[in-house]
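Box 4.2: Ligand-aware structure prediction
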Amino acid sequence: MKTKNLIDVKNLSVSFGNNIILNKINLHLSKKESLVIIGKSGSGKSVLLKCLMGLLKPKLGSIKIDGVDIVNTNRIDKENALKNIGVTFQNGALFDSLTVWENITFKETRFFGFDKKAAKEKALSIIQNLELDKNILELYPSELSGGMQKRVAIARAICDQPQVLFFDEPTSGLDPITGKIINDLIYKTVKKLGVSAITITHDISSIDNLASRVILLDNNKIAWSGKPNDMNKSKNNIVMQFLINK
Ligand SMILES: Nc1ncnc2c1ncn2[C@@H]1O[C@H](COP(=O)(O)OP(=O)(O)O)[C@@H](O)[C@H]1O
Ligand SMILES: [Mg+2]
């Protein structure tokens, strides 16, 4: 990575028809930072992340990833910039017709020419750090528990050593105990790999463990941003409404 801010977003605006979702959002992600985005359902958290992944083109604004504005550049530069990012989608979203090892090494086999043996070895080395047993490598996602599916999704995201990881609701659909284990795993993985992360969550209890900085989306804008500690002390109405549910 060349620039100080791995991600730099300026004046990002997204609408669907007349429906304004995000209005002039500014945010950045610096090295080794773990940014957590919260906000009520429908506030545009996933839309924001999809823009950062290059899956959705905003109406206005710029998104610089390592200095490259992925909104206003050509396809090749955009794809190269996006190679720095590993993603787990909301609901895990594994490929259900592929085994665990095929899921984890999807990019390696598809784009980087790994053969079966090399891919399986790679998958094995990744899952060992995620407290997964090697016996699951040949299983299909439907044969795994919800918590294991999330771990496999994390394994896929980190497989080709990205600089930035995105997690969209990594604990949704899990019981609270498994959710906590997954949050801890994300925290450990981010720290161990020395990468930066953006995590979207509705799980307020995970903030203290996961976030170095928090952004609260509300009413198409960033309503509050700061450190988890300051959030607990904040007198901001919208923040306080959120913390009641903590
Ligand atoms: N492709 C789309 N077309 C139209 N509306 C969309 C689309 N994607 C998301 N939206 C709308 O944008 C709003 C924000 O969605 P989303 O970012 O998924 O919310 P959340 O904060 O729960 O992740 C919602 O009102 C949703 O219906
Ligand atoms: Mg969402």
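In the box above, the bound molecule is magnesium ion. The CA atoms of residues 17 and 59 lie 11 Å apart.
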